[in-house]
Amino acid sequence: MDLHQNLINGEWVGGDAAENINPSNTGDVVGTYARASTDDAQAAIAAAKDAFPAWSRSGLLQRWEILSKTAHEIFARKNELGELLSREEGKTLAEGIGEATRAGQIFEFFAGEALRLTGETVPSIRPGVGVEMTREPVGVVGIITPWNFPIAIPAWKIAPALCYGNTVVFKPADLVPGCSWAIVEMLHRHGLPKGVLNLVMGRGSVVGQTMLDSRDIAAMTFTGSVNTGRKVAEASVKVMRKFQLEMGGKNPTLVLDDADLKVAVESVAQSAFFSTGQRCTASSRVIVTEGIHDAFVEALAERTKNLRVGDALAKDTEIGPVVDSSQLKQDMDYIDIGQSEGATLKVGGQRLNRETEGFYLQPALFTGVHNDMRIAREEIFGPVAAVIKVKDYEEGLAVANDTEFGLSSGIVTTSLKYATHFKRNAEAGMVMVNVPTAGVDFHVPFGGRKGSSYGPKEQGKYAAEFFTQVKTAYTAAG
Ligand code: NAD
């Protein structure tokens, strides 16, 4: 099978290789992808540094054109890219095509943003002096991404980095290099000058660590686990670079007595189980007031039992496989932990056999959970939901906020009073009223609070906060 190589200083470069395996069918090799060495990563950083002066002063039309052509190619190839995504990560085909489309929308949005950058001009407090505030690119941006959104997260970091005139060293997750390789190949073909975008696929401990240790990376944007995020923070502080972290979640959905039962069940089923629960915004704590608790649990158990788990590419699949064997083990371990802590496994939680060898798991629903149990406190990152019964809204809000994380927080209610209060008081970067905790727009800020995130928000025009730096210039009129 052809080797998909790394892109360093405008050249495709080989080296060690690894197979990209389909979690729906472990006999299916999606492709062979190069694994960069420390030397490769250093060469990529040097190339990005050399390319920065010219790219940071490049014409906006050139940036707009490359990003826009890439967006349109992604739209035209969304079915093929969606299939690639589903094969390498295990999301259903509909989810894969949806995510590929999202990547196109993000490139289209930032193509436009390249033309919309503004500054400010104000009079100085000193007569005859003018003050200008402008945004400038930061320099070489290091991008490190996780496996669970193989095309959308690379897109929402690469597009703004390039749009604002930065050069890039990009390391995708080792498990899912396919979609990343595809978008880098497009950007390269659409005319990015050499060294502006460098792709170094491979291991976090080798490629990622080399990036973290480099003094030539001026800003590091990271999405992934809390443990790795901490390493990114420590290394970045050591070299005094700008950094941005998006990490884990333990997102609550609060279901109140006055909720529409159908809306509540569908919202929670989607939030907790779709994309196999492998979303940082997935809802894994379902906090339910006592009046609706029993009816809600019965209806959700019925929905959970009937979720169709299967090959990501099969037409009627609602839930694809878990991404790999170690994530499956983690999910199964937490299902054991939940039971040993005294929670009731109401439905699901068993490994499933399908026609092909894959990592299939029936989504699990726990009831009788207390918020101090490990399954209510630690991120599982699988299709496992924990129902916590509370007396009323006030107790529900307190439980929702009682977590070290703060990414997305949901409420299902028909009460304007509670919805309004929740929007103001939920300790999360994103609040969802009668919509799932997962599923966001691409033109508005994305990100969390507390232990989930660090630094400026991503996406929309707020992305400029991270990918640019402000300069204040004073000019005497003379
Ligand atoms: P991970 O931390 O294991 O890996 C993330 C990336 O870091 C990968 O590219 C990996 O190779 C790299 N890495 C690993 N060790 C490194 C090191 N020492 N130095 C530099 N880079 C290193 O996370 P994952 O398992 O790929 O992703 C799952 C996690 O991502 C979950 O915790 C999930 O909540 C989180 N996530 C968060 C968001 C968000 O926006 N908040 C979105 C998606 C996923």
Set down the secondary structure blueprint.
Layout: E1 3-4, E2 6-8, E3 11-13, E4 16-22, E5 25-35, H1 38-56, H2 60-76, H3 78-89, H4 93-113, E6 120-123, E7 129-137, E8 140-144, H5 152-163, E9 167-171, H6 178-189, E10 197-199, H7 204-213, E11 219-223, H8 226-238, E12 242-246, E13 251-255, H9 261-273, E14 283-289, H10 290-305, H11 325-340, E15 344-347, E16 351-352, E17 360-361, E18 364-367, H12 374-377, E19 384-390, H13 393-401, E20 408-412, H14 416-425, E21 430-433, E22 453-454, H15 464-467, E23 468-476
Parallel strand pairs: 1-5, 8-9, 8-11, 9-10, 11-12, 13-14, 13-20, 14-19, 18-19, 20-21
Antiparallel strand pairs: 2-3, 4-5, 6-7, 7-23, 12-22, 15-18, 16-17
Bound molecules: nicotinamide-adenine-dinucleotide (NAD).
What are the defining features of this structure?
single chain; about 475 residues; alpha/beta; Aldehyde Dehydrogenase, Chain A, domain 1; Aldehyde Dehydrogenase, Chain A, domain 2; 7-stranded mixed sheet; 6-stranded mixed sheet; 23 strands; about 40% helix; globular; binds nicotinamide-adenine-dinucleotide
